[in-house]
Amino acid sequence: MENSDKDKLLKMKEEYNHIPVPESARTGIMAGIEKAKKDQRRIQMMKMSKRTAITGAAAMAAIIIMANASPVTANAMEDIPVLGAIAKVVTFRTFADAKNNYEAKIEIPKVSINEKDNDKVNRSIEEYAGELISEYEKQVGEDLAGDGHYSVTSSYDVVTDNDRYLSLRINTTVIMASGAESVKIFTIDKETGNVVSLKDLMKNKPDYITAISDNIKKQMAEQMAADDSKMYFYKTGEDSLDGFDRITGDESFYFNEKGEIVIAFDEYEVAPGYMGAVEFAIPKDVTGY
């Protein structure tokens, strides 16, 4: 693509990203977001269910998926004898509100392992939800949206459930003049019941920050070279513009079906808004994990 054409395309994307969302379009946007999330959950469940036909251990994974799919299913399966640490995630409560041009729906999950509530993790989850609720109430109380619209939607998915770890992903979308998606992942060590940070996981690998950061920037460059519609902000040297340079060890992460660490970034964090929230799967030969 010629530079002029590419500049036009990028300008169009930038203009699109800053288009205000009128009230009449809000319902369609929210419906599209919810459909995308449901499709993602369905694909994840299909992938994991396919693996259940391979071994007995995979069959047990299918039971775990069903238990995490809904409180009704989970309650019905409580009496089934199982082996190993079994995690269950259900909706503890939902904060819902709608008044004038403000709307909120925030699902707050609860985690239990081997039928025992994980109080420490659940407190962290409630604190995170509390921050979302407080911000919403501030918007309403001070009428910060004015004549515009403000909505916040937060839901969750179980993205990892293996013998050792449970990863609970909380997806939050805030719509004001435009939409912004943020991701918070709680990765829990089933043996200790504690939330594990990337820093904790890689504590015995002193060079992990450089190795993972360089791999992420490599993936960014490769994706941009292969697809003109993709764009990332990252530093290529000390004199380059501001952008992603190094991870901190506090990023949200989970394990995919290959056992690779997947690092998630919020919308706008390392890319323009039209890219949404982005993720990078880090090969095992990079992490050494």
From TrEMBL:
Transmembrane segments: 51-69
Domain of life of the native organism: Bacteria
UniProt entry keywords in alphabetical sequence: Membrane, Transmembrane, Transmembrane helix
Originating organism: Lacrimispora saccharolytica (strain ATCC 35040 / DSM 2544 / NRCC 2533 / WM1)
Domain spans labelled Deacetylase PdaC: 98-172
The DUF3298 domain, residue ranges: 199-284
Name the UniProt record assigns to this protein: DUF3298 domain-containing protein
Any single Pfam family the record assigns to this protein: DUF3298
Xref: InterPro entries: DUF3298 (IPR021729), PdaC (IPR025303), PdaC/RsiV-like_sf (IPR037126)
